[in-house]
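Page 37, continued from 36.
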């Protein structure tokens, strides 16, 4: 499920699970994902830049205290996502596709939170952060710091485009033809 998520976005979700464990929560909420983005904020992303000075305000608005000194191994257990957190992840993927990006960044997670009412979006609105300004900051950041595209993406573009299936079929036919030719030559010797 998380193969499209960047390392930073995966770490944000890891920290969300950690925060939920700290609170002995039965589910990971959208608020936990927001705090996960705050904790992962060491990266140079638009989300980190937008949120870096607001951690105390957001934690208090969400009712999530600062982390204690508990050991990580005592806290890490499998905690499911609640419905809002699942919607955040789904809408983050949608934001990435709207951005014409294969990868889901922490910026997309932040935009996914702002697309529907939840505990994280209410906390973000308390610091005057909205969807349009977040998208604009994300675009500016991506223009200033473009991501390196893989050879596949340079050659074929977005892998979810319709031509991907046709190219794969063509490749399979080509391989079958080469193998058939080799087999016929081998049988003729």
């Amino acid at each position: 499920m998380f193969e499209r998520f960047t390392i930073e976005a995966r770490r944000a979700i890891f920290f969300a699970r950690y925060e939920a464990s700290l609170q002995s929560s039965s589910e990971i909420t959208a608020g936990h994902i927001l705090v996960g983005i705050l904790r992962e904020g060491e990266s140079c992303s638009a989300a980190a830049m937008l949120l870096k000075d607001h951690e105390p305000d957001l934690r208090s608005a969400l009712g999530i205290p600062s982390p204690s000194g508990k050991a990580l191994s005592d806290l890490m257990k499998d905690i499911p996502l609640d419905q809002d957190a699942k919607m955040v992840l789904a809408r983050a993927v949608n934001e990435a596709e709207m951005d014409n990006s294969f990868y889901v960044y922490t910026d997309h997670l932040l935009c996914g939170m702002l697309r529907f009412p939840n505990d994280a979006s209410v906390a973000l609105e308390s610091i005057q952060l909205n969807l349009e300004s977040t998208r604009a900051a994300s675009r500016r950041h991506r223009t200033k710091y473009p991501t390196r595209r893989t050879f596949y993406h340079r050659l074929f573009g977005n892998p979810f485009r319709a031509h991907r299936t046709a190219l794969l079929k063509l490749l399979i036919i080509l391989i079958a033809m080469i193998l058939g030719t080799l087999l016929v030559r081998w049988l003729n010797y």
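The chain has two domains: 7-144, 151-188. Flag for discussion at group meeting. The chain has a mean pLDDT of 81.
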